[in-house]
Write a structure and sequence with these properties.
Layout: H1 3-13, E1 42-47, E2 53-57, E3 66-69, H2 77-80, E4 86-95, E5 101-110, E6 113-114, E7 118-121, E8 135-136, E9 139-144, E10 150-154, E11 158-159, E12 162-163, E13 167-170, E14 187-193, E15 199-204, E16 207-208, E17 211-212, E18 216-219, E19 237-242, E20 248-252, E21 256-257, E22 260-261, E23 265-268, E24 282-283, E25 290-296, E26 302-307, E27 310-311, E28 314-315, E29 319-322, E30 340-345, E31 351-355, E32 368-371, E33 385-386, E34 393-399, E35 405-410, E36 413-414, E37 417-418, E38 422-425, E39 447-450, E40 456-459, E41 464-465, E42 468-469, E43 473-476, E44 501-507, E45 513-518, E46 521-522, E47 525-526, E48 530-533, E49 551-556, E50 562-566, E51 570-571, E52 574-575, E53 579-582, E54 596-606, E55 612-621, E56 624-625, E57 629-632, E58 650-655, E59 661-665, E60 669-670, E61 673-674, E62 678-681, E63 699-704, E64 710-714, E65 718-719, E66 722-723, E67 727-730, E68 736-742, E69 771-779, E70 786-793, E71 800-804, E72 806-808, E73 811-817, E74 824-833, E75 838-847
């Protein structure tokens, strides 16, 4: 037995006398960083499928050892008032398939119920009065099997009146399982269940029932020891996680596995042997080092936490991320000052981190933080746009596929740094120093559209970019430099002072771009207020509709038709008042004629069901009262169930994946309820009363991030009760949910200690034929503007296209995926087009050999 491992565990358990005291709940909030406010050690995290996270910790006088947080880090008050205060310490949390929550630790009471070290809560947080196994001794690890049975690990001596040493299993009702009777010689700290029901056990022991099984063992589903599995770890194992291909990653305080040197982390191949190609070499800062938490991301990267100072010789303080081959991920670099004890991956890929740390460079956050997918801290952002007195604004926003956000408008600086009407923010909220196009007079684009290749389309009043002539439409490369090969020349270089403009863009799946505004020519060829250019910027001469007045908004349908909104009264001499639809060739759709009356249509959004939301300044649609916002069916008839009225202009609309609709503009009321310039509607059009983030002035632009945070641009200086100059990002308490699925079945939770396998129960893809891939999306995640594309890669870098996904209830689907090789790890990517940007989900998958039986040889 190792003295150092014992010291580590004792030191961890005694490290804190205070615990969880979280910040109160909040709704949409410009203080949008993740700051739960835990005041002592966080021992365990469990991510629910709905994005809420259960947090467990140590002792304090208020008995707050257990909490649940909403997606924005705010306190779930409904969970808190359910009567689940704990007298003692909670060390482990596990989620059942029915939503119940199992907790284990060293406690004597939960709520008003006597519970010795093990308890179960209902989904609302109330204590399950029928579940009381009564464990004598501490529990440090929990795992829920596919059949609902619960495995316990720790340093206990009995369950009920029956002796059980450090390891036991109970059925879903809390009755002791008589088949698992093995007795490790020391404590169990980690558990993981294979898809075939076999059980992995790690801890501080060197024998099981007297036989040599040092620190790591495997049991068959019938409770018998798997004698063939004995990798020979030489010290304590604290963490276990499976990869999608079935390989097992172990973390602990060991320095060797078998005859090989492995410091604190190793990977075991599927048939029990050490993986010789995986050797991150985690080293300590002094007295000891250990990996105490492991989480496998959907893309196969591995996040590890513990007590260490370097990984592969590179400084990393207590948290790091590895590439799939075990090499350090250099882009993920955040230091914390003490042990990381718990990790959980959110559905959107962010990493929630808990432990004993009390400081992080540059922030006062402690004990619990959240990291963006790139490893940067999820912190409050305040870009502070400044420029011209009385006229500074942000009028366009775009979210790029890499998570960066581009903003444009009429300004000269971001956070005091000069920027000429356009800027880009990195995922960590810092200003992108490389991206610095210059527009005349600080007048940036009126509309932005991110392309899948990272390039950015711009439309507006500008006539030069970086001193190069570009009339009203241009494209930037990913680095912000002007694309020299894209020059549509809207209006023409001979009239640079004429106030022509491009205010609307829509990107087709073939790379062509539809543009709308107020203009007369494109590339010297007559085009009236709407046109289409090819991917290289040349005019598509076959597309030539002619609205008689300006086009203000465009939206693409999944069938390639284009919905057009504006101030026009006719297109090609066909009467159309404010809204029309064009076929793929630009002809007016004779069957679509909603006919708005008033000041025109300024904003459009197409829902997945084909319904079209329109906003602007109008009073009727097809003669029916609909003030400034309405929804029509795909055939153009009015949706009579959508009756909300807005008292002034609507300029921006974004749709969440759950069907809720966020609107911005110049209004003050939704119906009779005050809502200044920004509001959210339920899917049926009624006001969502839970959303209230009134802005002090005009809202021009809205954009949703992949994680559900909402960007707002406009002319305001206050929003949601906080000072924010012209741009803000709002948190949302609901989660942005998304997951790739295989075979029509749900994936195991991403935070599962059994890893993030691609198919149900963490199994790899079992065959090459007729595999269905679905991309389920809900909650506050942004709805797609077009059907997403599915592609695959063998290296996670170069992707080959598979095809276009089709809409299903709650997401998108592709049937009949066939991959070219077996026994191969792949990356699958679903990538979708947003109204002004991109979003994607990447998941690592493994296609097994036909000769294999799932999980037959070791970890498969």
């Amino acid at each position: 037995m190792s003295y150092f491992s014992a010291v580590l565990r004792v030191a961890s358990l005694c490290a804190s006398l205070l615990c969880l005291s979280f910040a109160p709940a909040h709704a949409q909030n410009p203080s949008d960083g993740y700051s739960p406010g835990a005041n002592s050690t966080v021992w365990a995290l469990a991510m629910q499928p709905d994005g809420r996270v259960v947090v467990a910790g140590a002792y304090n006088d208020n008995n707050v050892r257990l909490a649940r947080l909403l997606a924005d880090g705010s306190f779930d008050l409904l969970f808190a008032i359910a009567g689940n205060t704990v007298i003692g310490t909670v060390n482990a949390v596990a989620l059942q398939a029915d939503g119940k929550i199992v907790i284990g630790g060293s406690f004597s009471q939960v709520g008003s119920f006597t519970r010795h070290n093990l308890a179960r809560l209902s989904g609302d947080g109330s204590v399950d009065s029928d579940f009381n196994p009564d464990v004598t001794g501490e529990i440090d690890a929990l795992a829920v099997q596919a059949d609902g049975a619960i495995v316990l690990g720790g340093s206990f001596s009995a369950v009920g009146v029956t002796p059980r040493t450090a390891l036991a299993r109970i059925d879903i009702d809390g009755n002791l399982d008589s088949s698992l009777t093995a007795a490790p010689s020391g404590s169990v700290f980690a558990l993981a269940v294979q898809g075939d029901g076999k059980l992995l056990v790690g801890g501080f022991f060197d024998t099981i029932d007297g036989a040599d099984h040092s620190f790591l063992a495997r049991f068959n589903s019938d409770g018998g020891i798997d004698a063939a599995f004995n990798p020979g770890v030489n010290n304590t194992v604290y963490a276990l996680a499976f990869q999608p291909d079935g390989k097992l990653i172990i973390g602990g305080a060991f320095t060797g596995v078998g005859a090989a040197t492995r410091n604190a982390i190793a990977r075991i191949n599927r048939a029990d042997g050490l993986d010789p190609d995986f050797d991150p070499d985690v080293s300590g800062p002094g007295f000891f080092n250990a990996v105490s938490a492991i989480a496998v991301q959907a893309d196969g990267k591995v996040v590890l936490g513990g007590t260490f100072g370097t990984v592969g010789g590179t400084v990393r303080h207590n948290i790091a991320r590895l590439q799939i081959n075990g090499a350090l991920d250099a882009s993920f670099n955040l230091s914390v000052d003490s042990t990381v004890d718990a990790l959980a991956i959110q559905p959107d890929g962010k990493v929630v981190v808990g432990g004993q740390f009390t400081s992080i460079p540059g922030t006062t956050l402690q004990y619990m933080v959240r990291l963006n997918a790139d490893g940067s801290l999820d912190a409050t952002i305040d870009p502070d746009v400044t420029g011209f007195v009385g006229s500074t604004n942000v009028q366009a926003l775009a979210v790029q596929g890499d998570g960066k956000v581009v903003l444009s408008g009429f300004f000269t600086a971001i956070g005091g740094t000069p920027r000429s009407g356009i800027a880009r923010l990195n995922v960590d909220n810092s200003l992108d120093a490389v991206f610095h196009p210059v527009f005349e007079f600080g007048e940036g684009p009126a509309v932005l559209q991110a392309q899948p290749d990272g390039k950015l389309l711009l439309g507006g009043l500008f006539t030069t970019i970086d001193g190069t002539p570009r009339f009203h439409l241009a494209r930037l490369n990913a680095d912000g430099g002007l694309d020299p090969d894209f020059n549509p020349d809207v209006e023409g270089a001979d009239v640079p002072l004429d106030p022509r403009d491009v205010v609307a863009l829509a990107l087709q799946t073939d790379g062509k771009v539809v543009l709308g505004g107020l203009f007369d020519t494109v590339g010297g060829i007559p085009r009236t207020n709407i046109a289409r250019v090819n991917a290289n910027g040349s005019l598509d001469v076959g597309f030539d509709p002619a609205p008689d007045k300006s086009v203000n908004a465009l939206a693409m349908q999944s069938d390639g038709k284009v919905v057009v909104g504006g101030n026009f009264n006719e297109i090609d001499n066909v009467p159309r008042s404010g809204i029309a639809r064009l076929d793929v060739n630009g002809n007016v759709d004779p069957d679509f004629n909603p006919n708005s009356a008033g000041g025109g249509v300024a904003a459009l959004a197409v829902q997945p069901d084909g319904k079209i939301i329109l906003g602007g300044l109008f009073s009727t649609i097809n003669g029916l009262p609909h003030k400034n916002i309405a929804r029509v069916w795909p055939n153009g008839t009015v949706d009579s169930d959508f009756t909300t009225s807005v008292d002034n202009l609507v300029t921006a609309i974004v749709v969440q994946s759950d069907g809720k609709i966020i609107v911005g503009g110049l209004f003050h009321n939704i119906g009779v309820v005050p809502r200044d310039r920004i509001a959210r509607l339920n899917a049926n059009g009624t006001l969502d009363t839970d959303f209230d983030a009134s802005a002090g002035d005009y809202v021009f632009a809205l954009a949703l991030q992949a994680d559900g945070k909402l960007w707002v641009g406009g002319q305001f200086d206050t929003i949601g009760g906080a000072t924010r100059h012209k741009i803000a990002r709002l948190s949302q308490p609901d989660a942005a949910l998304q997951s790739l699925m295989s075979g029509g079945g749900p994936l195991a939770p991403l935070q599962s200690r059994a890893g993030a396998g691609f198919a149900a129960s963490n199994r790899p893809l079992a065959s090459l034929s007729t595999t269905t891939i679905t991309w389920m999306r809900s909650g506050t995640s942004p709805e797609l503007a077009l059907p997403p594309e599915l592609s695959y890669s063998v290296d996670g870098d170069v992707y080959d296209p598979v095809g276009t996904m089709s809409p299903i209830d709650g997401g998108w689907s592709y049937d009949g995926l066939t991959l070219p090789a077996i026994g191969q790890t792949y990356y699958l990517r679903a990538r979708g087009q947003l109204p002004s940007g991109q979003i994607e989900s990447v998941r690592q998958a493994y296609v097994e050999r036909p000769a294999d039986t799932i999980y037959a040889d070791g970890f498969e």
